[in-house]
Design goal:
Blueprint lengths: L10 H31 L5 H4 L5 H35 L5 H16 L2 H10 L8 H26 L2 H9 L4 H16 L1 H14 L11 H12 L2 H33 L5 E4 L2 E6 L2 E6 L1
Helix pairs in contact: 3-6, 3-9, 3-10, 4-6, 5-6, 6-8, 6-9, 7-8, 9-11, 10-11
Length: 287
């Protein structure tokens, strides 16, 4: 039987596909072997290059950088979400004096490269406290602007009948936005919000360029002292992978909890009442 987009391959095509697959796998294995051989020739697998990462003093340095990385990411993510909500809603305002400034801020900080933004803020040494502050500010401005577009798109994705019904029963626009549209938008755009939070966590590595005491800056200190750049890069990469996996797991758990309880904005307007469904039951209030 033929598929929708293409016919099922015949015996010759199946053999050809298998040969291509085997050749591709063999090529990748050869490339990997060549890379490992080259690293071995350059003594990248010797114990002296990896021994620092089991030394208590070096572990403390990495843990210090890890703590500041998580702190910077957490602060930036929280403030960026608030920033995104405010400016995302502002871009939908009926008032031009609110809408256009919000539009200008969001579009400007979305367009400016993040590294350039961080370096520029860092150059204003008379106005910042330390090198970690410009990193957080840059992450907030960039990721907050992206989240503003996420929230705006989520609000526009809410069925129009929801807001029309809310207006029909006499709710003001701020009530419609706060009670009806925004909660549903958060639920719709939760995967995109989670993805942007992961991006913010990874972007903390840019603090390396302004000597912010994050994980990558600590790694630079280590490889400058021991000359083990490859080993340090592998260790830092593994730490970032674990951090992102943990954040992904946490975000997935939150998403499942919201889906299971019907929370995060399951709002309906029935018979002149705004009804919100939660895991404990159904609550409703008339406006």
């Amino acid at each position: 039987m033929s598929a929708v987009l293409f016919d099922a391959p015949g015996p010759k095509a199946v053999r050809r596909h298998r040969l291509i697959a085997v050749a591709t796998i063999a090529g990748l294995v050869l490339i990997a072997a060549a890379v490992v051989w080259k690293l071995a020739v350059e003594d990248q697998f010797t114990a002296e290059r990896w021994e620092p990462f089991v030394t208590p003093a070096i572990i403390r340095v990495l843990l210090e950088g890890l703590g500041l990385t998580v702190l910077a990411a957490a602060v930036a993510i929280v403030i960026a979400v608030v920033f995104g909500v405010i400016f995302g809603v502002g871009k939908l305002s009926d008032h031009a004096l609110v809408r256009w400034p919000c539009w200008a801020v969001v579009e400007f900080f979305r367009a400016v490269p993040l590294l350039m933004l961080i370096i520029f803020i860092w150059s204003l040494q008379g106005y910042v406290l330390n090198s970690l502050t410009p990193l957080v500010i840059g992450l907030v401005l960039y990721n907050g602007s992206v989240l503003a577009e996420v929230f705006r798109a989520g609000i526009l994705a809410v069925p129009k009948g929801q807001s029309e019904a809310a207006f029909a029963i006499g709710m003001r626009k701020n009530q419609v936005m706060r009670i009806v549209q925004l909660p549903q938008a958060v639920r719709i755009m939760l995967p995109a919000i989670i993805s942007q939070c992961i991006v913010a966590l990874k972007d903390t590595s840019l603090g390396f360029y302004i000597l912010a005491p994050v994980l990558t800056a600590k790694g630079k200190e280590i490889w400058n002292f021991f000359g083990n750049k490859f080993a340090t890069a592998i260790v830092l990469a593994l730490i970032y992978i674990v951090l992102n996996l943990l954040l992904t797991w946490l975000a997935t758990w939150v998403e499942r909890r919201i889906s299971a309880t019907g929370g995060g904005g399951e709002v309906k307007i029935i018979a002149g009442q705004v009804q919100a469904h939660t895991g404990a039951g159904q609550s409703s209030g008339a406006f």
